[in-house]
Amino acid sequence: MRALFGLMFSCALVACSDSPKTLNDISKTIDDINWQLKPKYSGEVPNNQSANSYRVAITGNSHVAGLGAEINKVITQLTPQKQTVSETIGSGFLDDSIRSSIATQALENGNWTHLILQGQKYSQSRKTTYSTTAAEKWIANAKELNVMPILFPEHPQRGDTTEAQYVYGLHSNIVAKQASCLAPVGLVWDSVLQLMPNLRLHASDGNHAAPLGKYLTALVFAEVITGQRVDSVILTPVNGVRADEQLLMAQVVSEVIYQLPPCPFSESS
After folding, report:
1. How far apart are CA 133 and CA 63, in angstroms?
2. Cα(61)–Cα(44) distance, rounded to whole angstroms?
3. Would you give the DSSP letter of residue 202?
4. Which of 22, 57, 207, 250 is 20 to 30 Å from 224 at the Cα level?
5. For residue 207, what are the contacts with CB-CB under 8 A and spacing of at least 6?
6. For residue 232, which phi and psi values (nearest 5 degrees)?
7. Mean pLDDT by 10 residues, the chain (269 residues)
8. Nearest CA to 52 among 79, 30, 32?
9. Contacts of 235 (CB under 8 A, 6+ apart)
10. CA distances from 119 to 16, 49, 52, 130, 256 (A)
């Protein structure tokens, strides 16, 4: 029966086509079909917050540039006794990086504790719906390797007061399909800017994060990765913000995470 199916499938690809296909064409077609299939693995999210050391893999586009180094700095302040390493293993949107054998092999071979996933496509006009299969596959691959996946819904563009909630909701839908941690980055940005609208969180393009914005995002991930409140320690001062403002930023991070627990850990985790 399997041989018959294979023959019929080959016919569909070659003999029954308007034009002959090369083996390379057939291979690409099969790859495209496989890529569109939903991942079969749907296990629970590993809880690696208490790991002896942290190895954080990151995949994403320009919004993750330099983020790993900032996360390392904050985690070192939270848990100075633990070694922390962060590395970008994939680039571009998630449906690009999932197709990269270099990125997927880096996940398999890196002995990571956590994986940050940024780059889910979404429509800024909110009129187009994009597939979330790539995100679901990254999450499934991470969990199979006992790596704790964390979705990164990026911060809103400057002046857009509804984008953060929209992007967070989109990523919540991914979690409903494939369990994962979900960092409330954009919602934290919204809350901080409501309290301190004069903080320069955005770069001049109004899209990317300025150094202070990247620091705020790193605070979110440091708490999700370690499970320790970032407002529970005295943080090293950073440029562009007063001590009281920095403390308020940390308090907002911890409060939003308290109100919206990022990880659906089971009781046995």
Report:
1. 21
2. 27
3. B
4. 207
5. 157, 158
6. -95, -5
7. 39 42 52 57 92 98 98 98 98 97 97 98 92 97 98 97 97 97 98 98 98 98 98 96 98 98 82
8. 79
9. 74, 77, 246, 247, 250
10. 38, 23, 29, 12, 22
Reduce the DSSP state of residue 260 to 3 states and report it: coil
* Among 117, 14, 13, residue whose Cα is nearest residue 60: 117
Strand 54-60 with 84-91, pairing: parallel
Give yes or no for a contact between 239 and 73, defined as CB atoms under 8 angstroms apart: no
Q: Residue 35 has what pLDDT?
A: 52
Chain CA centroid to CA 34, Å: 23
**CA dihedral (186, 182, 165, 208) positive or negative:** positive
- How does pLDDT run across 57-68, given as a tens digit for each residue? 999 999 999 999
What is the pTM for the complete model shown?
0.86
Residues 130 and 153: beta-carbon distance below 8 Å: no
The identity of residue 23, as a single letter, is L
Task: Classify residue 198 by burial, with Cβ atoms within 10 Å: 0-12, 13-18, 19+.
Answer: exposed
Contact 203, 210 (CB under 8 A): yes
d(CA 170, CA 174): 7
Alpha-carbon distance 255 to 239, whole Å? Answer: 23
Could you give the maximum distance between any two Cα atoms of the chain, in Å? 72
- Give 100-159 pLDDT, tens digit per residue: 999 999 999 999 999 999 999 999 889 999 999 999 999 999 999 999 999 999 999 999
* φ, ψ at 32 (rounded to 5°): -65, -40
